[in-house]
Structures are given as C-alpha cells and as structure tokens.
Design brief:
The chain is α+β, with helices and mostly antiparallel strands. It has two domains: 254 residues, Bira Bifunctional Protein, Domain 2 (BirA Bifunctional Protein, domain 2), CATH 3.30.930; 89 residues, Rossmann fold, CATH 3.40.50.800. Helices cover 29% and strands 30% of the residues. It contains twelve helices and 23 strands. Strand 5 and strand 6 form a beta hairpin. Helix 1 packs across helix 9, helix 2 runs antiparallel to helix 6 and helix 2 crosses helix 9. The longest helix has 21 residues. The radius of gyration is 25 Å and the shape is elongated. The two termini are 20 Å apart. The structure holds one RNA strand.
Length: 411
RNA sequence: CGGGGUGUAGUGCAAUGGCAGCACGAGUCCUUUGGGAGGAUUUAAUCUGGGUUCAAAUCCCAGCACCCCGACCA
C-alpha cells in the first residue's frame, strides 16, 4: 500500500475527550473515528487490525471443532419472553418497534437464538457435543458508553455456544476453550489472568473472565499473593484473605477481554432444548457460552503495547508487516525504494510504503505512532552504502543492511 | 436513570455585552530533506430555537450533542 493513497489522516494531537492512551493513539493514527456516543467507525488501518484479530479468533475456534454460523441481529421477541429476559435484560436490551408497532430488539447476545435453532434439530445424544460460533455485531443500550472502544453500544463479538450431554463433558470443553482463549490473547500480545467471575444476566452456574492488568481498567480483581488464584470483586466482595490458602489478597485494576460461562441447563430447561439419552429419555442439554469483544480486545492490545511515541503492534495483529520509508526526494532513492517495495510484496509481505514528500521527522513520528513492527528506511545516506536501515518498533537499535541481504532480515 | 461539566474553524485555545482572533492542521506555489523544516498565499467557526438589549459567542429560558462521576453491565 502506498501511504500517499492510504485513507488516513494521521494527527499530531488527540481531541481532549480522549482520556485513555489506546483511545488517543487509535484516534491520532486514524484507526478509528467516533460517529456518536458509544459508536465508532473502523477506518482502513483499524479495520486491517480488526481483521487480523478476527482471523486469529476464527482459526482458534475452528481448531476447537466449532462450526461458524450467522444468527440474525433482529431478535424474535417471543424467544426473549420465553426466557423472561425481555424484562430482565433491559437494560441493556435495545428495543424497537417495526412499522406495524410490533416490538423487536437488536441482539446483545444470542442464547435465545442459538437455543431455538438447537432445539429444532437436535434429537439424540448422538448429535452431541455440538459447538457453534459466530463473529457478529452486538448492540447494547448501555447506561453510559465509556473510554473509547472499551464500552461501546455497538461492537463485534465472537460468541461460541456449546451443548453437551453431561457436566463432565462440558467441563472438559470449558478447559479447552480456556486454553484456546489464552492462545488467542498470546497471539495478540496479551497476557491475561483468568479469574472467577459473577455471571450477571447471562446467568448459569459459574463463569470466568479474562483480565488484562491495566491501571485504566474499570474492573477490580483480588489476586492471592501466594497461590495466585484470582476473582472479580463483583463475585466475592471486598474480602481480605484468599478463600483457598488464607493468604493476603491484593486488589488490581484490569480490563475484561473475555468471559466464559457454564450455563448449565438455564436456557435448555426453560426453552425445552432437549435430546434423548441412550435409554430414550428426554434431557435438557448442558450448555456453555464463551464471548470475546473484538474492538475492546483491540483497545486492550494498544493499551498494553505502546510507548510514549505510539503503538507497538504485536506482529500477528499489525496492520502491515513492514513500514518502508523513503527519505529525500532523490530520483535514485525513489527508484530503489520502489523496487524494494515491489520485491517485498512479491515475496508476500504486507508493506506500507511511505512515498510522500514530507520531512523525515514527520515520517518517523507518524511511523512510531501507527506502530508497524519493522521499519525500513531508504535514503541517499543508506544508498551510499548500498543498504537500507532496519529498525524494530520495540527496539532503539538500528541496523544497516545491504539491499541484497534484506530478505534475511524480514524472515 | 441521578449528579456534574463542556459546546467558538479539522484540533487546541482566546475575545469586559461593542469589528470573532491566535496557534497547529488542511489546500496551492517556492525553497528544504535523517526526528513533527522555512516563506508566500488560501481555506475554515460562535450547537439549535426563543428571550433581554441600541448591541449577545458572552446574560436568561428551552432543547440538542458530547464528556466525566455514580448506578447498571460482556
């Protein structure tokens, strides 16, 4: 991609209402743009990152043996009446009326939908276990949107639902999902804690949240200094000592980047989502559900992968792999840079080529801000050595590399 | 939903009730080219509707929008 063509206006300052570092950098880098309160646009740069995150999540879900589907955003009110959540989930249910004055809602989560489609076709224990997921827009009529991408009224969520014949099988799968979640976060450059959580209006027997430690997080957890077990304050209240080993607890702020629930039979009982067991007896399926909010994850990645100059994207979620920067308006520099750009692209690299006529300082500052992992500089100075300069975003060290050796440095 | 705050150019800020200005940005041209360069020139704003007043960005009322705290919540 030529940077002169990129639909992005990188800014020197952020508007004053942006308080969080992730919000500031994502706005300044023109990754995102606010439309109105709690609603954000993903601009090309931000959408590229979003897609990388989405691909990682999809890959890990498919590896679990889950099948991807798509459930409607417009919700069938009758299903929500069945579970009584038409009342109990409001707020944050986004209700509206169609032109015949019939009520509907925008989907904030999809237990009703998935359970309905499950009960219409699953008859036998032989069809279980079953894992289904989707990656799709959710709408929540929040009391208040906060902190840029951290709490928005529309966002995209990966929601996975599992159906089992017994608790044991669910427990096994629940652990597998935990592992898959840790892989997802690791690939996104995050190192979260898995903590016991309160299940809220989703309900169920128990749940776990994935938490990234951050001073700007709106959640509080208590972590045991000794046995490292942790729980959300919402779940256990403000207790002083660990319930397992009695050691002192430490309170920490964090950002919730995932929540998984053991739903038990909460939805299957009430909606009669039953299968026949080996003896031909009808039983409610045991269910689990597992969610990750993608934009919030993206903001959390920025929040914990940055320095004073800007974002430092982890390799797998970076919008581009290489930021090629040409300095000076020298014909030869332009020619060589163009050639390197073409060659890197041919070798399958995603390259952002800064072909603009701007001052070097401005180009470097913008490059640091948007945080592409590898920076490659071509200038009269480097060409005198038949070389380019290569610098990793997270390091300060600069390497001079011969042009015909470049491929050894970009893997 | 309760409380608080703020609305002036794309962004950040000024303007005692009396000519709406500055900086940055953006556009054009020239010069410049290793950490946000210089000059010339152009561009662009008082949230909306009422009221008070000779005169309103400024005071009053209503509305709208955004932000923050709380409650609520993946």
């Amino acid at each position: 991609m030529l940077q002169s063509q990129l639909f992005a206006k990188i800014k020197k300052t952020a508007p004053k209402e942006a308080e969080f570092i992730s919000h500031k950098y994502l706005l300044r880098g023109d990754f995102i743009e606010q439309s109105f309160s709690g609603v954000y646009r993903l601009l090309p740069l931000g959408f590229k990152v979003f897609k990388k995150i989405e691909d990682i999540i999809r890959e890990e879900m498919l590896n679990l043996g889950a099948q991807e589907l798509y459930l409607p955003v417009l919700q069938n009110k009758n299903l929500w009446l069945e579970t009584n959540r038409w009342q109990t989930f409001d707020p944050p249910l986004f209700k509206l009326k169609d032109r015949h004055q019939k009520e509907t809602a925008l989907g904030p989560t999809h237990e009703e939908e998935i359970t309905d489609t499950f009960r219409k076709r699953i008859k036998s224990y032989q069809d279980l276990p079953l894992y289904l997921f989707q990656i799709q827009n959710k709408f929540r009529n929040e009391m208040r949107a906060t902190g840029g991408l951290f709490r928005t009224r529309e966002f995209i969520m990966k929601d996975l639902y599992s159906f089992h014949t017994d608790e044991r099988d669910l427990a096994d799968f629940y652990e597998k999902v935990k592992k898959a979640y840790f892989r997802i976060y690791q690939r996104c450059g995050l190192n979260p804690l898995c903590v016991e959580a309160s299940s809220g209006t989703i309900g169920g027997d128990f749940s776990h949240e994935f938490m990234v430690l951050s001073p700007v997080g709106e959640d509080k957890i208590l972590v045991c200094k000794k046995c490292k077990s942790a729980a959300n304050v919402e779940k256990i209240g403000s207790i002083k000592n660990c319930r397992k080993c009695k050691s002192a607890l430490e309170e920490k702020s964090c950002i919730e980047i995932g929540h998984i629930f053991n739903l038990g039979t909460k939805y299957s009982k009430i909606m009669k989502a039953e299968y026949l067991d080996k003896s031909g007896k009808a039983k409610p399926a045991i269910m689990g559900c597992y969610g990750i909010g993608l934009q919030r994850l993206m903001a959390a990645v920025v929040e914990t992968n940055c320095d004073k100059s800007g974002i430092i994207w982890p390799k797998e979620v970076a919008p581009f792999a290489i930021h090629l920067i040409q300095i000076g308006d020298d014909q030869n520099v332009r020619k060589v840079a163009e050639k390197i750009y073409q060659d890197l692209q041919k070798s399958g690299k995603e390259v952002l080529y800064d072909d603009r006529e701007k001052s070097p300082g401005e180009k470097f500052a913008e490059a640091d801000l948007i945080g592409i992992p590898l920076r490659m500089v071509v200038s009269p100075r480097t060409l005198a050595e038949d070389s380019v300069e290569i610098k990793k975003r997270e390091e300060s060290q600069i390497k001079l590399v011969k042009i015909n050796q470049i491929k050894n440095y970009v893997e």
